[in-house]
Amino acid sequence: MSQKDEFHNIDDPGDGLFRELAAGVTTRIFSGEQAMLSVVTLAPHAQGTLHHHPEEQWGVLLDGSAIRVQGDEEIAVKKGDFWRTPGNVPHTMRAGPNGARVLDIFSPPRPEYRKAGSGFGTT
């Protein structure tokens, strides 16, 4: 594998493994050996499905605004905010009026995200 294969662009819609998570919620996935990145795009007012998984997850709001649902709390987030979601904590995201874009980081990588498809996987 060329080292060039290890370089990507967060704004290139054709880069990464595409997955539709829910209506108006898509992601592009970049998987390594010990970590996985997911660039999630949410249409205005779109919402993911409440779900959980054993992997630790960090998120960064790159653009827009949203409500982060985590455990039994709803927390407003703005561009630049980031958070940690421990494994097995129920969570989702609800985009604001202009939509949102989130960078999620998983460790270890989520097996169900190593292939194209749809849905969040674990619920």
TrEMBL record:
Domain Cupin type-2: 39-106
Protein name: Quercetin dioxygenase-like cupin family protein
InterPro entries listed in its UniProt record: Bacilysin_H2HPP_isomerase (IPR052535), Cupin_2 (IPR013096), RmlC-like_jellyroll (IPR014710), RmlC_Cupin_sf (IPR011051)
The organism's place on the tree of life at top rank: Bacteria
Residue span of region Disordered: 88-123
Lineage of origin: Bacteria, Pseudomonadati, Pseudomonadota, Alphaproteobacteria, Hyphomicrobiales
Pfam families: Cupin_2
Ranges in coiled-coil conformation: none
Signal sequence coordinates: none
